[in-house]
């Protein structure tokens, strides 16, 4: 299969993330601002905003076969290494344990290492992909 040998690199992932923020979270931030007079994305008191963000990153790929909105637009998706369907366990390991908690514990160093792994590894897998047994591939 073409998508088995066509891993998605750093820039396409980066732009997919920007699209997610522009399409999903910017409008929600504006709406919440008008309702509460606070900008939830930047305010420490809105822990629920981070919770909503991670629920989106975990749940939507499970319901939408490896896509979030930004990835769908960019023509990339998250897949398991063994080709099986993504599970809640995969996505929690990928998004919450590997991206959020590990980055928090390492003061962001793991995120920087992940960027370099995605840039320089042939399979374009970051720490979060290695831990969760996932990869991001082009679907065209």
Automatic annotation (TrEMBL):
<keyword id="KW-1003">Cell membrane</keyword>
<keyword id="KW-0812">Transmembrane</keyword>
<dbReference type="GO" id="GO:0005886">
    <property type="term" value="C:plasma membrane"/>
</dbReference>
<keyword id="KW-1133">Transmembrane helix</keyword>
<protein>
    <submittedName>
        <fullName>RDD family protein</fullName>
    </submittedName>
</protein>
<dbReference type="Pfam" id="PF06271">
    <property type="entry name" value="RDD"/>
</dbReference>
<keyword id="KW-0472">Membrane</keyword>
<feature type="transmembrane region" description="Helical">
    <location>
        <begin position="51"/>
        <end position="70"/>
    </location>
</feature>
<dbReference type="InterPro" id="IPR051791">
    <property type="entry name" value="Pra-immunoreactive"/>
</dbReference>
<feature type="transmembrane region" description="Helical">
    <location>
        <begin position="91"/>
        <end position="120"/>
    </location>
</feature>
<feature type="domain" description="RDD">
    <location>
        <begin position="7"/>
        <end position="133"/>
    </location>
</feature>
<dbReference type="InterPro" id="IPR010432">
    <property type="entry name" value="RDD"/>
</dbReference>
<feature type="transmembrane region" description="Helical">
    <location>
        <begin position="12"/>
        <end position="36"/>
    </location>
</feature>
